[in-house]
Write a structure and sequence with these properties.
The protein is mainly alpha-helical and 158 residues long. It is built from seven helices and no strands.
């Protein structure tokens, strides 16, 4: 407070001893900061709502077996995935891995499903029971048999 008063003493036209009001530059700063904070908060809430909405769309596309559309929504969400809460992040990585798997992208699927397992933890936080079971089965199928190979097993010849 003393520092603020000393700074105000040096501002031209401000006489703290006579009780004059704070100069306009200092007087409007709190209002401007409140407005800035309100704008930032509104943008953050809007971003959270948009993220939630996009996740719902991705889940709906996946549930309707539109895996390419689900993957498109999920690729768009990749940059905000680290800021999601843990249950949503686990669902994000699960859906991304399963969409990649359904599209035949085995290495990408394994990567995202491993991350989903790590985020969900032992109790499967954020995933339904059937999702946890499918996650475990799919990971087991995708994990390489040979520890030195990350290639999928050979496809049977027609």
């Amino acid at each position: 407070m003393l520092l603020l008063l000393r700074c105000q003493d040096r501002v031209e036209g401000c006489n703290v001893a006579s009780g004059s009001r704070i100069p306009p530059v200092l007087g409007y700063a709190p209002r401007a900061m409140r407005r800035s904070l309100a704008v930032i908060l509104a943008l953050a809430l809007g971003a959270c709502a948009a993220t939630s909405s996009e996740m719902r769309r991705a889940e709906e596309a996946y549930d309707q077996a539109r895996f390419d559309a689900a993957r498109t929504w999920l690729v768009d969400l990749e940059d905000v995935a680290p800021s999601m809460d843990e249950p949503m992040r686990a669902r994000y990585f699960y859906l991304r891995g399963m969409a990649e798997y359904r599209l035949g992208h085995r290495l990408e699927a394994l990567h995202y499903l491993e991350v989903a397992q790590e985020v969900a933890g032992e109790n499967g936080r954020g995933l339904r029971e059937e999702q946890r079971e499918l996650l475990a089965r799919t990971r087991a199928e995708l994990e390489p048999v040979d520890p030195l190979s990350h290639r999928p097993p050979p496809v049977a010849a027609d």
